[in-house]
Design a protein that fits this description.
The chain has eight helices and no strands. By secondary structure, the chain is mainly alpha-helical. Helix 3 crosses helix 4 and helix 6 packs antiparallel against helix 7. The longest helix is centred in the C-terminal third of the chain and has 38 residues. It starts with 5 loop residues before the first helix and ends with a helix. The model has no long low-confidence stretch (mean pLDDT 88).
Length: 195
């Protein structure tokens, strides 16, 4: 089977704000076209191709219907995605150094309180307060991702040169990696709260 990217396969522009009704319509149309049930009397090779296409279609649909997965996929096909989960969260993004330092200090103090037998009402409010600036960063990053997505789409619409597009993609990648790091920080706070 000839592999194309998910956008091309579903006949959608390589944009981050896509027409969800069009995505659903293309998915349903191609599902009917490739579904293995329609190939039960076909040759083994045709059944295999049907399964491959159906699987690729499902992967494409899952990736493109979710805005964050769509960004991650675009970065991947444009050659700017992190190679793996460890690379995505390995380094503290420079924009978050101050918050991470303050959060780690607070978490150490809260762990010390817990280990000394302090009551939950002594340390839980501190975790709640420590969570607030990180949560605000998450909200800010979601907004920045939306703005960058709109900038990307405008560049695609006007056929901007690769250099301009790459600048936006690099900014998207940085915000995306920071978003992953922020989500990991928030998950760490949640673990501490439930400990």
């Amino acid at each position: 089977m000839e592999r194309s990217d998910f956008f091309s396969f579903l006949d959608l522009p390589r944009k981050l704000n896509i027409d969800m009704a069009r995505l659903d319509e293309r998915y349903r149309t191609l599902s009917r076209q490739f579904h293995p049930d329609f190939f039960y009397n076909a040759t083994a090779a045709e059944r295999r191709v049907s399964l491959e296409r159906s699987s690729f279609l499902n992967d494409a649909y899952r990736a493109l219907r979710d805005p964050i997965k769509r960004i991650e996929y675009l970065l991947k096909i444009e050659g700017l995605a992190p190679k793996n989960e460890q690379e995505a969260s390995r380094q503290v993004p420079p924009a978050l150094l101050e918050e991470v330092f303050a959060l780690n200090e607070e978490l150490d103090e809260v762990r010390g309180l817990r280990e000394s037998g302090a009551a939950r009402q002594q340390w839980q409010p501190r975790l709640e307060r420590a969570r607030q600036p990180i949560e605000q960063k998450r909200v800010d990053h979601e907004s920045e991702l939306q703005s960058l997505a709109a900038e990307w789409d405008a560049l695609v619409d006007r056929g901007a040169p690769e250099g301009e597009r790459k600048q936006i993609l690099e900014r998207l990648r940085d915000r995306f990696l920071e978003r992953n790091y922020i989500n990991n920080l928030l998950a760490g706070i949640e673990r501490e709260m439930s400990a």
